[in-house]
Amino acid sequence: MTLRTRLMVAQAPLAAALAAVAVLSVVTSNTLGRAGERILTDNYRSVLAAQRMKESIERLDSGALFVVIGERDRGLTLAKEHHPTFERELQVEERNITEPGEAEAAAALRAAWTDYQRAYDRLLGAPEPQLRALYLEELQPGFTRVKIAADDILAMNQDAMVLKSTKVRRESEWVETAVVSAALASLVLGLLASAALTARALRPLAVLGQSVRRLGQGDYAARVRVTDGGGAEIAQLASDFNAMAESLQRYRDSSLGELLEAQLAAQATIDSLPDPVLVFDAAGRVANANRAAEQVLGIRSADGTLAAAPPAVRERIERIRDEVLAGAPTVQPRGFEDALVVEASDGNRALLPRANPVSSDEGQLLGVTVVLQDVTRIRRFDELKDDLVATVAHEFRTPLTSLRMAIHLLAEQTVGPLDDRQLDLVQAAREECERLQGIVDDLLDLARIRSGRLELHPREVSTELLLEQARHAARDGSEQRQIPVDLDIQPGAEVVMADPDRIDLALTNLIANAVRHGPPGRPVVVRAMRADSGVRIEVRDDGPGIAPEYQPRLFEKFYRVPGSAPGGAGLGLSIVRDVVEAHGGKVGVKSAPGAGTVFWVELPDSQTGVGGPAAPAPVTA
Q1: What kind of fold does domain 273-374 have according to CATH?
Q2: Is 572 exposed, middle or buried (0-12, 13-18, 19+ CB in 10 A)?
Q3: Which option is the CATH number for 3-193: 3.40.50.2020, 1.20.120.1730, 1.10.150.530, 1.10.10.10?
Q4: What is the dihedral of CA 435, 440, 442, 446, to 10 degrees?
Q5: In degrees rounded to 5, what are phi and psi of residue 274?
Q6: Local confidence band at 389 (pLDDT 50, 70, 90 cut-offs)
Q7: Can you name the CATH fold of 457-603?
Q8: What is the maximum alpha-carbon separation in the chain?
Q9: pTM for this structure?
Q10: Radius of gyration (Cα) for the chain, nearest Å?
Q11: Where are the alpha helices (DSSP H) in 272-354?
């Protein structure tokens, strides 16, 4: 017998139980349905006939009253209409005798109706002076007897319907209990029988599964021996498994040395790297750590955790590891400000963490590699560069001030008259000096920010006042290029928490940058709106836009988009980012070629408060 046949036989008891329950349900449903039909057939028609007879006798009585009061035509019309109706319904009742005593009640009604008809005929044929007496003495008592007889039949059938309904309800409750009990019993018996037959049919698979687990644990000597008649399929599967186990054992015997050598070579390669390297598995545990990670951070792969690492290092590594495990393609640092400063035996080290996923050929995530690049010397060079730039800019300031003053005196012709060509040259020199002064100011501002000497004194400030001051600062360029600056303050964005003097530097840079790149005659729109983290300020221009490949570097120092108009040193957006982040805010850009550009900043309000990015604190390894 094949495995398919065995499984089908194992499910047969359960199918039989379900079929039995279905048959029982159909039979009981039909029985209850017929009981309801009997109630309708036996009693409902009699109830309906009695009600119609009562209505007809009342109309006949009304017709008699019309005759008594002198409206004979109207009374005869009612008598002609309802006399046949009463007779028809009485015949229906006489043919539908279903309850004990109902025949006697129908006979009584027939007798009362016959007497009433005779009295009614006498009334219709009597002279007018006798009508009143005849109605009160004969017709009215006859009407009462007919109505009482009809009420008896109505009450008899209604009581019978109630009794039968109660009986049917009790029977249905009993049937429901019986059906549920039978269904549960059939289901339990069917499941037990099916489970027993299924277990017997699948026992060879359990033997095969045990052998597979042994093989997975490294026992290449595991073999499957099926003796319980598992069928042709199981026998073939066992044969194929045994052949695979033999092949794996031969491969292991021939390749184990090579695998161990490759593993040792890979570990030696990782250990030779001067930067700390950590490899995590898909569950987030440390699978491997090179010698530099053990020496600098104290992390050992044997522990499987980052418990030995300093708290700041552990928090940063766990965060970027979790980001990659959550689906991020990679985690790269923004710059030296993301470096971890670690105290080691040979001095402080600046480590720049980055994380990359480890995936199989099928794209399955196997783990994460975290490299902490040692940028101590590069960071020191960057600091020396910033110091040099600040020193040069500071030394430029005094002679530049004197040069600006001299050119200003020449332009104002204070020291003597100049002709038009000389004035043009002096004016050009004056504009270049002003541009150079702006670059020097940017360099000094950037030096103060980078050195950590940018002191903030945040307070609640009107958003409109800040934007108005920034618009006024960019007024010269706006008027020169005929580019108006429109302000739009939306509800909920009226107040921000900021240092007015410092944030004005960032907003002025953004508006001046938009005016510089916007087309003449098209306004620059500055909009403040409510955001989740505070207030969002957007500066929109209708300029040529920025290609996506250039946008990630816009906020770097000295970076200028290739092909952009001359002017500036590429420091404005870097200053914007540093000032906004010092306030605990965020910056960003949205742009596309030919669609204009939107630079945005998000600043905290009185609810969120101000908190600048903390400088990396030294940790001890």
Answers
A1: Beta-Lactamase (3.30.450)
A2: buried
A3: 1.20.120.1730
A4: 160
A5: -75, -20
A6: low
A7: Heat Shock Protein 90 (3.30.565)
A8: 148
A9: 0.42
A10: 51
A11: 291-297, 311-325
